[in-house]
Design brief:
The chain is of the alpha+beta class. 32% of the residues lie in helices and 23% in strands. Strand 3 and strand 4 form a beta hairpin. The two termini are 22 Å apart.
């Protein structure tokens, strides 16, 4: 989920203040975990069912670990009012006969200064029933010193899209210099998704300036030169 326009426009300082003011209500929430939705374009195969179940199990384990961390804090700090925030929901980005993509949207707090919002893309190849890596289809990455990183042309696209999300730009928008100076380099796991209208890039900067970022969609026509035609033929990709 792209952050709402109002939230994205908060400066880092304003965001921190806003988070602190909302902690009392956020901490009162019990963990809530939705099951990953099932595709509707095709019947769910046994392999896909196992893949979906494995994802759900992984998220449940994360929630348990989060609750454990908070329990340890409460054990040390007897009067601490905090409790777990772990709210997970989904949005379907693409439900086709070959590829199924959902965005996982997680609001999480397990201790520390303030909560976090984590957005990931979960992509499946419906032919195999297993997880699918969009970087096989679009060669937008290269090997860098610290792992996979965006190619320079793609970094520029992502930066332009993030800045465009903030228009009309206000004079005191502190996020503009943040975005202009960010290398937008490393590709984190599960942050690239194949959507109906374009490639979803869920790039997130440093936690303290998270409000400056959000899910952006790169139109497929702008990515044609990066398309792996052999892989596109294999999965019958027509975008």
């Amino acid at each position: 989920m792209a952050l709402t326009a109002a939230t994205r426009r908060l400066t880092p300082i304003a965001l921190t203040a806003c988070v602190w003011m909302s902690l009392s209500s956020a901490w009162a929430q019990a963990p809530h975990i939705e099951s990953i939705p099932r595709p509707k374009a095709l019947p769910v195969t046994s392999t896909l069912a196992r893949s979906l179940a494995a994802w759900d199990k992984e998220q449940a384990q994360l929630a348990k670990e989060c609750a454990k961390d908070v329990a340890q804090i409460k054990a040390r700090e007897k009067n601490s009012p905090i409790s777990v925030e772990f709210t997970l929901r989904y949005e379907v980005l693409l439900d086709s006969s070959r590829i199924y993509t959902v965005a996982s949207l997680l609001n999480i707090y397990c201790g520390g200064p303030y909560p976090a919002f984590v957005e990931n893309a979960v992509v499946f190849d419906l032919t195999t029933g297993k997880r699918y890596d969009p970087l096989k289809l679009y060669a937008i990455s290269r090997r860098g010193r610290y792992g996979a990183e965006f190619r320079p042309a793609v970094r520029k696209m992502v930066r332009e899209a993030l800045i465009a999300e903030r228009k009309p730009i206000e004079k005191d928008d502190d996020c503009i210099p943040v975005l202009q100076q960010d290398d937008i380099q490393l590709i984190e796991k599960d942050t690239i998704g194949l959507g109906a209208q374009g490639l979803h890039v869920m790039y997130a900067g440093a936690h303290v300036v998270q409000a400056c970022y959000g899910n952006v969609v790169l139109p497929y026509e702008r990515l044609q030169k990066f398309l792996n035609t052999k892989e596109a033929k294999r999965i019958h990709w027509v975008h």
